[in-house]
Design goal:
Blueprint (H helix, E strand, L loop, with lengths): L2 E2 L15 H6 L1 E7 L3 E6 L4 H8 L16 E6 L2 E3 L9 H5 L2 E3 L3 E3 L3 E4 L12 E14 L2 E7 L13 E5 L5 E5 L12 E7 L5 H6 L8 E8 L12 E6 L3 H14 L5 E6 L9 H7 L47 H12 L6 E2 L9 E6 L4 H10 L18 E5 L6 H12 L1 H4 L2 E5 L6 H8 L7 E6 H10 L11 E17 H7 L4 H10 L5 E4 L5 H13 L4 E4 L3 H10 L4 E5 H9 L3 E6 L24 E9 L4 H16 L1 H8 L4 E2 L4 H22 L2 E2 L1
Parallel strand pairs: 2-8, 15-16, 16-18, 19-20, 19-21, 23-24, 23-25
Antiparallel strand pairs: 1-29, 2-3, 4-6, 4-8, 5-7, 9-10, 9-14, 10-13, 11-12, 11-14, 15-17, 21-27, 22-25, 22-26, 22-27, 22-28
Helix pairs in contact: 12-20, 15-20
């Protein structure tokens, strides 16, 4: 896509200042002890991304600052943390020198401690073309796909890791390798198990138009869950549906290497057909035991034992093995971590000590097992799980909550927090990130979903107020294709300057900035995350109301724009408060005004621009919508659950860490608010001259 610049001309750069490109490209060395492995990381990338790019196997889980799996001890150096959940990294932990590598940007060379990193544990991440060699349906909704790798290239991976398909619009889809690495010696290729998700961009293609010899592009390997071969502890493997794929690869790898550690596999599904490779599974396992576990409701936490299921002909006959009652969950953090894994249909391979004797690998299956049963089964194997997961709505199906942006940002974090809070009233809510095209891809998926209440999503400033006027062609109608549920949050933007520049120019207020701009015409510039971004439009509105000129310098995202401000390349920005606050508190940026109608307790003493220009208000907001046509009783039920979650004190505390203010509304109020925002941004986008073809 081409973005027309709102203004032309070169940015003025103070003598000796570095450009944001130079700052972003500044490479810092990251060293991991005790392994001694080192890699370089640019200032504009998080440490985990640089480690993956360099083939260094730092641990990680969600990659969005929510689970804390990537937490490492910082021995030396300085980092800047992006948005993350306080439970993943508390203030005390950060003060003690811990970092979350998934959202930490290096400011200097950094030395970390991570004993999970060894000299040989990771392979380089590669981008490469693959050819579809064959595909075969294993059940009505599971396709076994075999990919041929380039003959001249070597692709190495650990059993348990995954690759990502690189699709149009920057969209990616991840699938685990189902064949062990040693099979590459005979025929270089990958086996994947792909479940059909109706309406999914990639899986609709796989089950519809995909042909043999088709060329696709992939990147990998990714993932830090694989067998640590330096341990002899027993292993528990847990899979639901196609989550069996990485475990199949791991089992094959163990057999190839002659690893005889006691291992138990739990594989379940909602229907017998979900065990799509049951007979093959029985054949590859040294022993196979079948048991059936009946569902129960808490708080009893007991299990009624049913007669054993009829074993497959491929299964060796063994005695019935009863399943013990699971322990109660011991921590909310573990509850949330496992719920996220369950929502993603994957569970890490994790050692479990002292459970079994002998060296056999046992297979416990249940052809009618739902996800709650699977959790109970794994708890019986000493994994700690939460209490019951009620099924969503009245149909027994989970609700899909589409976030039209990549994981890790404030929208994603708040969506996941609410999904967790409404579990008791709505059941399982699965967050589905569909980023790309400024949020249009995800918003379009919401608009085109069935209006049954089982697919909802995030509506944001960009997708429902700016993009309709910014993009020449839109795949959806923001005014007609959605039904509001409730507004979620409001985050003010803040007018900030480089603190040193503000002191040098003696600018301490908005009035000072306006006076300087009028006395020095055409000398000021400002940065933003791109043409048509909230920072750009807020800057244009500020210029109009103040009667001044400042050259707009667009960057590829908010982070490069902030780096440009910190380096002195631009004079001021209007940035999201959650993004700018850490540097304001650190004294690197000076806050002159908020773009909201009211002051914020997060920045005491900083006035709103509305005190200078009546009615000036450009906040970042987002909320929940459903496809148009969703029945009003369903909308009402969703509204009641999510408003209660937004009003919960825990939610306000959690959102407060992101400087996001919960703003629950009625569906009618949110619809009216979005309409007024579209009207406001129509004139702003037109005045800015920004356009995406």
């Amino acid at each position: 896509m081409r973005r027309a610049l709102a203004a032309s001309g070169a940015a003025r750069r103070p003598c000796g200042a570095t450009t944001s490109t130079e700052t972003a490209n500044a490479a810092f060395q990251i060293t991991v002890q005790p392994s001694g492995r080192a890699f370089s990381a640019n200032a504009d990338e998080v440490i985990l991304a640089a480690a993956i790019r360099s083939g260094v196997g730092l641990p990680y889980g969600c990659k969005d600052g929510a689970c804390g799996s990537c937490k490492c001890k910082k021995i030396s150096g300085a980092v800047h943390h992006g948005a993350h959940q306080s439970k993943a990294l508390t203030a005390d932990e950060e003060a003690a020198g811990f970092v979350l590598t998934c959202c930490a940007h290096p400011l200097t060379d950094v030395v970390l401690e991570s004993r999970q990193v060894t000299d040989e544990s990771a392979f380089p991440v590669k981008k490469m073309p693959v050819r579809v060699a064959a595909f075969e349906k294993k059940s009505h909704d599971v396709m076994q796909v075999r990919l041929q790798l380039p003959a001249a290239d070597t692709f190495r991976y650990h059993a348990g890791q995954y690759i990502e398909f690189m699709l149009q619009g920057g969209v990616r889809r991840a699938y685990s390798m189902a064949n062990a690495p040693h099979t590459q010696a005979e025929a270089p290729g990958l086996e994947l198990h792909i479940r059909h998700m109706p309406g999914g961009q990639f899986t609709d293609h796989v089950f519809g138009a995909m042909k043999e010899k088709e060329i696709l592009r992939v990147e990998g390997p990714f993932g830090s869950f694989f067998l640590r071969e330096d341990s002899d502890k027993p292993i528990v493997l847990l899979a639901s549906g196609t989550g069996f794929a990485p475990l199949k690869a791991l089992i094959e790898h163990m057999q190839f290497k002659g690893i005889t550690r006691p291992t138990t596999l739990y594989w379940g599904g909602r229907r017998p057909g979900d065990l799509y490779l049951h007979d093959s599974c029985c054949r590859i396992l040294p022993t196979c035991r079948a048991t059936r576990c009946m569902p129960v409701a808490p708080p009893s936490w007991s299990i009624r034992h049913a007669p054993p299921t009829a074993p497959s002909a491929a299964c060796r006959p063994t005695n019935f093995l009863p399943t013990p009652s699971p322990p109660r969950p011991t921590s909310t953090a573990e509850h949330c971590r496992l719920a996220r894994m369950q929502a993603a249909d994957t569970v890490p391979i994790a050692p479990a000590s002292g459970l079994f004797s002998g060296g056999s690998l046992r297979f416990l299956h249940n052809g009618a097992m739902n996800r709650r049963n699977i959790l109970l089964a794994s708890a019986a194997a000493a994994a700690v799980f939460s209490s019951s997961l009620a099924m969503a709505q009245d149909t027994g199906a989970p609700i899909r909550l589409i976030v039209p942006y990549a994981p890790g940002g404030p929208l994603d974090i708040t969506a996941r927090a609410l999904a967790e809070r409404v579990r008791d009233s709505l059941g399982t809510v699965i967050v589905d990130n569909k980023g790309g095209a400024g949020g249009n891809i995800g918003a379009d998926a919401i608009a085109k979903a069935a209006p049954d209440g089982l697919t909802i999503g995030i509506a944001a400033t960009a997708t429902h107020a700016v993009n309709p006027w910014l993009y020449a062609r839109m795949p959806y109608d923001a005014a007609k294709d959605f039904a509001g549920i409730t507004q979620m949050v409001r985050v003010p933007n803040v007018l900030v300057m480089n603190a040193e520049k503000a002191a040098q120019l003696k600018i301490n207020s908005v009035a000072d900035l306006i006076a300087y701009a009028k006395a020095n015409p055409a000398k000021l510039n400002y940065g933003s995350g791109g043409n048509g971004s909230a920072g750009h439009l807020a800057g244009e509105m500020f210029k109009q109301r103040a009667g001044i000129f400042a050259l707009h310098i667009p960057y590829r995202g908010g982070n490069p724009a902030q780096l440009a401000l910190l380096s002195g390349e631009v004079d001021f920005n209007i940035d999201n408060l959650a993004t700018a606050a850490p540097n304001i508190r650190a004294g690197k940026l000076k806050a002159l005004a908020l773009t909201s109608l009211q002051a914020s307790p997060a920045l005491p003493g900083v006035p709103p621009l509305s005190s200078t220009f009546k009615g000036f208000s450009i906040d970042t907001w987002w909320g929940l919508v459903a496809p148009a046509g969703t029945p009003k009783p369903v909308i009402a039920k969703l509204n009641k659950a999510f408003v209660a979650a937004l009003n919960a004190p825990e939610t306000r505390t959690r959102f407060g860490a992101l400087l996001a203010e919960p703003v629950p509304t009625t569906p009618e109020q949110f619809d009216a608010f979005m309409a007024s925002e579209r009207d406001k941004y129509q004139s702003l986008v037109k005045a800015s001259g920004a356009k995406v073809d």
